[in-house]
């Protein structure tokens, strides 16, 4: 007679941190019994992501995210909060302080390689500091970096050295901010361990705490990425993630619009210039180069979307658009003389260049964060 397997004695996946099990292929942590002899051991899900770039529908529960995050407040730790400069308002954890207590925080602003190379980095840093303060974050330092390009990484290591002391290092962030990529860089500098975390563009790659031992007996602890449904990247089909997420430096697209003109960003969202003083206004679009932009008259916009969503206005495909929530209209009045971005979480932003006042509207799936903010660039 067989007995139930005691999963408590099984190790954890070195890729995503989940407890391994050999009995149920449909549940997180499954690994074939013969693969348990490998060193290190990774679950079947991580194996498929690493070797075949496959996605998985297995993701942690949001309550579990918050439970794990809340554990940090009981520790003596240095917290590295990683955010995505392309999706700052979508990826920042505004309620972080209530979870981590008085532990010091370094704000690592990743993916700066996506910004135009002519960007003024001092202004970018000042912008980040103001946005972090507005979000209620108390940070020891702001580090602009690119884990992908290894930019700013020496500065991050220096900041960790200044603030860590004899603490463990906890790394937190939303999904798709480059958390695991950055931690893999830390492992190479702080640990002799032959281990790399699973990295991919799919949300929820890390499923549980991953503890990486450091040479001084402390740990780097990777936490699961927090999934915010207000980010477009959490809503789309996995095939559209590669379209939304830019891989190269953004090439700003400037449009001179008259009142009553509309821009469609594929079938993802719509931007209406409703009213403005003067003949025409200038708008600069910062989105992935794989998102096509289509200009039309505002009076034709509803009809155009109804007839051509998923075809002329794509991606997403018609089938994938139908899976998304219905669009909600957001109207904004841009004050005269302001320097503003109209931000759509996960898709990008539109900079309003005119010194004159204007009224604009954005149509996007219900729940996606749409807001006006101070201009980043």
TrEMBL record:
GO MF term list: GTP binding
Q: Where is the CP-type G domain?
A: 62-229
Per the record, a Pfam family? MMR_HSR1
Query: Gene3D superfamilies recorded for this chain?
Result: P-loop containing nucleotide triphosphate hydrolases (3.40.50.300)
Stated name of the protein: Ribosome biogenesis GTPase YqeH
């Amino acid at each position: 007679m067989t007995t139930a397997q005691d999963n408590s004695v099984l190790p954890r996946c070195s890729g995503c941190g989940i407890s391994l099990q050999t009995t149920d292929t449909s549940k997180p942590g499954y690994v074939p019994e013969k693969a348990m002899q490998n060193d290190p051991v990774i679950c079947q899900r991580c194996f498929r992501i690493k070797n075949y770039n496959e996605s998985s529908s297995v993701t942690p529960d949001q309550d579990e995210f918050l439970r794990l995050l809340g554990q940090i407040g009981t520790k003596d730790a240095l917290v590295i909060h990683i955010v995505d400069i392309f999706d700052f308002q979508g990826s920042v954890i505004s309620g972080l302080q209530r979870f981590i207590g008085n532990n010091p925080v370094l704000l690592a602003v990743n993916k700066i390689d996506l910004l135009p190379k002519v960007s003024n980095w001092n202004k970018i840093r000042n912008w980040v500091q103001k946005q972090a303060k507005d979000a209620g974050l108390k940070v020891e330092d702001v580090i602009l970096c690119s884990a992908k390009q290894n930019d700013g990484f020496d500065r991050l290591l220096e900041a960790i050295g200044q603030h860590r002391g004899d603490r463990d290092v906890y790394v937190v962030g939303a999904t798709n901010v480059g958390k695991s990529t950055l931690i893999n860089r830390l492992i190479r500098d702080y640990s002799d361990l032959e281990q790399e975390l699973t990295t991919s563009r799919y949300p929820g790659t890390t499923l549980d705490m991953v503890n990486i031992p450091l040479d001084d007996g402390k740990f780097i602890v990777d936490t699961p990425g927090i999934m915010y449904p207000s980010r477009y990247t959490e809503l789309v089909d996995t095939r559209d993630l590669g379209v939304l997420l830019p891989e190269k430096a953004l090439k700003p697209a400037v449009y001179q619009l008259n009142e009553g003109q509309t821009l469609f960003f594929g079938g993802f969202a719509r931007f209406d210039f409703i009213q403005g003083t003067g003949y025409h206004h200038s708008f600069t679009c910062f989105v992935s180069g794989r998102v096509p932009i289509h200009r039309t008259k505002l009076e034709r916009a509803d009809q155009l979307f109804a007839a051509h969503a998923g075809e002329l206005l794509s991606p997403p495909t018609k089938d994938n658009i139908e899976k998304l929530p219905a669009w909600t209209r957001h109207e904004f009045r841009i004050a005269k003389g302001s320097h503003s971005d109209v931000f759509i979480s996960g898709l990008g932003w539109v900079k309003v260049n005119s010194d004159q006042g204007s009224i604009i509207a954005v149509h996007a799936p219900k729940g996606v964060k749409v807001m006006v903010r101070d201009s980043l660039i």
